[in-house]
Amino acid sequence: MSEIHIFSGHYGSGKTEIAVNFAIAQQKAGKNVTIIDLDTVNPYFRTGDLRNMLEDMGISVIAGRFASSNVDMPLAPAEVMRAFGNKGCFIFDVGGDEDGAYALGCYAGRLKKNGFEMHLVVNLRRPLTAAARDIMDIKRGIEAASRLEFTDIYNNTNLSAETDADTITSSVGELVELERLSGLKVVKHCGTKAALSDIEESKAFPMELYLKLPF
Amino acid sequence: MKVLMKGNEAIGEAAVRSGCRHFFGYPITPQTELSAYMAKKLPKAGGVFLQAESEISAVNMVYGAAAAGVRAMTSSSSPGISLKAEGISYLAAADLPCVIVNIMRGGPGLGGIQPAQSDYFQATRGGGHGDYHLIVLAPNSVQEMASLTAEGFNISEKYGIPVMLLGDGTLGQMMEPVDFDLIPEPEAYEKPWAACGTENKREKNVVKTLYLEADELERTVIEREEKYTRVKKELQRYEEKYTDDADIIISSYGITSRIVETAVRKLRDEGIKAGIIRPITLWPFPEDIYKKVDPKAFLSVEMSTGQMVEDIKLACECRRPVYFTGRTGGVIPSPQEIAEKAKQILKEVCGDGI
Q1: pLDDT category of residue A214 using cuts at 50, 70 and 90
Q2: What's the confidence (pLDDT) of residue B55?
Q3: Mean pLDDT score, A106-131
Q4: Which of A49, A129, B30, B199 is the most exposed place for a label (fewest CB within 10 A)?
Q5: What was the pLDDT predicted at A12?
Q6: How far apart are CA A207 and CA A151, in angstroms?
Q7: Alpha-carbon distance A104 to A142, whole Å?
Q8: Could you tell me the residue ranges of all domains in chain B?
């Protein structure tokens, strides 16, 4: 059995940034890590953009051969099948919303047989996912399309470069409501070290920001 | 409160807040999030989102909605804007207010899906047929995409000229904090020409573009030209930085201006007197400021093979040499290559004395 982590959520919630940081953390913990870019929705700001950096770190990258090129096509590479029946840690970076989750659905049977953790990434400073009930809509859409159920929540509430400790702590109230509605627990709060200053260590997921703008 | 949004989404939210309840679109990368946002948001706001069967239909639906006097929007990316060109010419000919969004990608033809600025000529010189102009606004941040969308509706109604919001794939896709409390409020303009029902109380209004009598058509074109003259006087917008002592003034718009800012900071750190003029209105081009400044050279930086550079030459009346550098086809220039080009130009212009 392989160890499988799936990061999914609303588009723009920070799934790719978290998946990349998660992969690097697992690699540093001594695991054999593969990251799978399953984003069939958006050709901008993708795991595939970081392929060279990740491979230099010893992390395998599975991405469509044409990902981030001008002939980007919504295809699931055959190598994704390596995640099943091989040892190691496999991290799925899934495209946003239910539209992106359909691609994941084609592996639903294999994922259930193997076992997996599926993390719901949320950013409460995104206008369409600012309220727990809106996140529940997106959660239900993704679960229906992927035929899989989330196992926990990663809070990635942020304002990009302007994120501070208040940005994260201000999300806590609505997260309590989300936990109540979903029956899931918020297991991690994500952010830079500075922004996580008010979060207890066991719940903090410190990140470096790897996806950068060209200036 | 600030929220984190993609440029494309920010345009949508700003449009809804500006009273736009009619959006007609057709998907194309890299602007699709705008359509997707409107599809989710407009029904909740009591509006109409309609995915048309083509770009041509979408732009003509905007004609219909605008003619009825409501705020309407359509959006696309480069090849889709070419398809809309006929309808855009009709909108301009009927003096209809509306906002048309172009989130540019590499061209010509189907080109690519990466960001570009190669539709400058199309946006500022027409694209459709006939003597007409659009008012063209070029934001350079997600916040400005929101503000200029809101302002775009106001300006468009004030002058009766369609507004084009000209962004690029990077601006559309990148995420930045945005505060909607800072965007302009909607202004109310009378629309006595609107075809919104006579209720048997007045003569019917006709919103048309066909004039078979030559002198009648000439009259409408000249009236519109007078309006353009007024807009040129009243609406030139730009941002300038460090122009007072500048030996070289670098101009760029949209996302490229963010890269130029980094390049200019780097040049200033090295003791090189570089300044910035960033046009915010591309039509009317902010030509007045180019007549006031006096550098040794101008440099235009664009993600094209050089289009705005022609407007700079016209604006400064070639008093100083105007250079160009840029990348195209979806490639984004780096701050380093811009700084190197600026240094090379100063060497050419001043010899080694600089």
Answers
A1: low
A2: 98
A3: 94
A4: B199
A5: 84
A6: 21
A7: 9
A8: 3-234, 238-353
Residue A212, in any domain of the structure:
no
Contact residues of B toward A, CB < 8 A: 2-6, 9, 13, 29-30, 33, 37, 40-41, 106, 112-114, 169-170, 173-177, 258-259, 261-262, 330, 332, 334-335
Chain B CB contacts of A215 under 8 Å are: 258-259, 261-262, 335
Is B285 strand, coil or helix?
coil
Confidence of residue A99 (pLDDT cuts 50, 70, 90): confident
Tokens of A120: 């719901």
In a 3-state reduction of DSSP, which class is residue B315? Answer: helix
Tokens of A47: 């795991």
Chain B residue with minimal CA distance to A44? B173
| Nearest Cα to Cα of residue A77 among A93, A96, A63 | A63
Return the number of other C-beta atoms located less than 10 Å from residue A9's C-beta.
Answer: 29
Place of tokens 């046009």: B279
Q: Check A70 against B37: CB less than 8 A apart.
A: no
The shortest CB-CB distance from A162 to any of B2, B40, B261 is to B2
Which amino acid makes up residue A101?
A
Confidence of residue A71 (pLDDT cuts 50, 70, 90): low
Nearest CA in chain B to A67: B113
Query: How are beta strands B274-279 and B238-241 bridged, if at all?
Result: antiparallel
Per-residue pLDDT tens digits for A123-177:
999 988 899 999 999 999 999 999 999 999 999 999 988 999 999 999 999 999 9
- The CA distance from B6 to B16, in Å, is 16
Cβ B227 vs Cβ B159: under 8 Å: yes
| Domains B3-234 and B238-353 equal at CATH topology level | yes
Query: In terms of C-beta distances under 8 Å and separation of at least 24 residues, what long-range contacts does B79-83 make, across chains too?
Result: B79/B28, B79/B105, B79/B107, B79/B109, B79/B110, B79/B111, B80/B26, B80/B28, B80/B55, B81/B55, B81/B119, B81/B122, B81/B127, B82/B122, B82/B127, B83/B54, B83/B55, B83/B56
Q: Residue A159: beta bridge partners? A: A161
Best of B1, B4, B252, B303 to disrupt the A interface (most A CBs within 10 Å) is B4
Assign a CATH topology to domain B238-353: Rossmann fold (3.40.50)
Sign, CA dihedral A85-A88-A93-A98, equals positive
Q: Does the domain formed by B3-234 have CATH 3.40.1190.20?
A: no
| pLDDT tens digits, one per residue of A5-60 | 999 999 888 999 999 999 999 999 999 999 998 887 666 667 767 888 999 999 99
Test A215 with B259 for CB contact under 8 angstroms.
yes
Nearest-CB residue to B259 (from A12, A130, A214): A214
The domain total for chain A is 1
CATH code, domain carrying A179: 3.40.50.300
Quick one: pLDDT at residue B354? 52
Phi and psi at residue B55, to the nearest 5°: -60, -35
Q: Which residue of A has its CA nearest to B337?
A: A215
Chain B nearest-CA distance from A13, in A, is 9
